[in-house]
Amino acid sequence: MAGIKDVAREAGVAVSTVSKVLNNYPNVSKETKDKVNKAIKKLDFMPNAVAAALSSKQPGRVAILINQMTNASIDEVDMQYLSGAILKAREKKLDVITLFFSMLGDKSLKEITAYLKSQNVEALVIFGLSKDDKVIMKLVESGEFKTVCVDAPLVSDNTSCVWVDQYEAQYDVAEALYKMNKPKKILYLSGKKNSFVCEKRLQAVKDFCKKKKLTLKVEQADFSEKKAREIVLKIGADYDAVICASDLCAIGAMMALTKMDIFRPVCGFDGISLMGYAGRQMTTVKQDFTEIAMTAVEEAERLLLGEAGREVILPHKVVRIEYLDVIH
Amino acid sequence: MAGIKDVAREAGVAVSTVSKVLNNYPNVSKETKDKVNKAIKKLDFMPNAVAAALSSKQPGRVAILINQMTNASIDEVDMQYLSGAILKAREKKLDVITLFFSMLGDKSLKEITAYLKSQNVEALVIFGLSKDDKVIMKLVESGEFKTVCVDAPLVSDNTSCVWVDQYEAQYDVAEALYKMNKPKKILYLSGKKNSFVCEKRLQAVKDFCKKKKLTLKVEQADFSEKKAREIVLKIGADYDAVICASDLCAIGAMMALTKMDIFRPVCGFDGISLMGYAGRQMTTVKQDFTEIAMTAVEEAERLLLGEAGREVILPHKVVRIEYLDVIH
DNA sequence: CTGTTAGCGCCTTCAG
DNA sequence: CTGAAGGCGCTAACAG
User: Fold this and answer.
1) Which of A152, A193, A288, B290 registers the highest number of CB atoms within 10 A of its CB?
2) Is A93 on the interface with B (CB under 8 A)?
3) Chain B residues with beta carbon closer than 8 angstroms to that of A97
4) In a domain, B97, yes or no
5) Could you tell me the pLDDT band of residue B69, with boundaries at 50, 70 and 90?
């Protein structure tokens, strides 16, 4: 691999000059710039990113932390988060390293911090954080790293939060279902206890039902298809509609209803393609996870540039999913 | 962040000595080693990985290349590949960078090579490569990087291949289905044209049918649930059983059969959790993608250590999946 | 506008 | 067994 020296020699200039054109410094004459660029092309030169990172004050890496298998996910969500984040990071020329919560859970805050620092990470982008992830919560609060939380309302001077307005989204989908079917008694299958998103969603349904004067029964389904199925089998018949905090639960609810051979409108949350297998049209909230991830990385860049943390709200859509709409 | 110098001062030794204990050199007395380790602990020191990478001849990074959304995947497979690979890499203290085919497809071999070199990558672990991925095929063949291909039979001095024996697996599952239902006429829904795995699977079914003197009809379903459904709707009734090159197709086939209200045994391939939604018991081949990925990374390490490329065959299982066996 | 010169933080011969 | 010194490839003042 050709080095910067070779380029300098080839172009007949000093290494620093080459460095300058590489990093788009203003004060280089067009001529020498051309010379250098020609040499670069000729030698197929590309600066060694490791060396550059070591020597320069450029921002360090950003670590993507994924809480695998926690959301309603079935991997689809995580994968979209990941690819969106990685894509945007490359675009922004940010180095990333990918980590899973499971790799950190058993380590102390100190260890994690040391590890991240040793890897030259300066910013964190965290997906799927919940209050139960104690160490990672502490990591965020420690302020050692600029961090962007997706789906967790943590905002401070150096931590931003990016998400869809969970309250509004849940409210909207409930309303859509309401308009269509005019239910009187609602069964709400809530998600995990200490999940930030779930609290918002739950509140939305509560408020909605209050406003419309509907009876509301809340059950904890923990994002689980199975639990949802069991709950609905047991008490589903007593309600006019089932609103779910996740698509997976909606599928479970649907399965139960089909088995009981009764009809009740059901709606989900997330818009994962698995919904295509629900066997019936369903209403759900569609979140664009790729977009969310890309926005999160952009936000991380902002923080790295020294700007202050903030909350970024992304739009959502309420959609009807047909059987196999989504899967090719 | 404490540096190696701080540790040296704290321990009252030279930096080089610290470095030696860090890298487990043999010639350090136990006493000084203890002193140094104490200092390390006291200062929460961790060597800067970037600097270490730059200065030492330690192996470079390994790039994980994922062909997102190509297999029967629905993300589950890719996610397991990814987490397995990343986990093992951390265990082996190998630095990884994750890339998706889609980020490279439009670039030239030269560009990709330059980029990878600039990122200090020395080894590639490639998931889901097919003959159609021209550039990446060339990348592998160029020999510039040690590479491990999962699901592609590329073996040379510096490239290994890790996979489940596709022929045997497909043969086994066909046999299992045969024993159970004694079909005479088989419909085989094959996968994508230029996929390495598909060719092996197809050959296995051909051989099996020949041996058992069964009528075999092969149709291209391209791993698509929809195509599988359409094919089975059209001609499924004429056959006694449907063997599929992927679970997704098996689900499609099942959906079609259910719609037609006829029973035909169906089997799939991969063992993804989506099979839990097929609505009926199904036979399939279960591959442990996490394990495959971990093995692939280990193999990459071997190559990095200078050993020669080879083929590594991993075991598979033929399993029956019940409704929601797999999804919690 | 261009070149010279220190480092970045660590590893690694090579003397002692 | 330990320490001093050079260098990995590049960037960033600082001179010129």
Assistant:
1) A152
2) no
3) 95-97
4) no
5) low
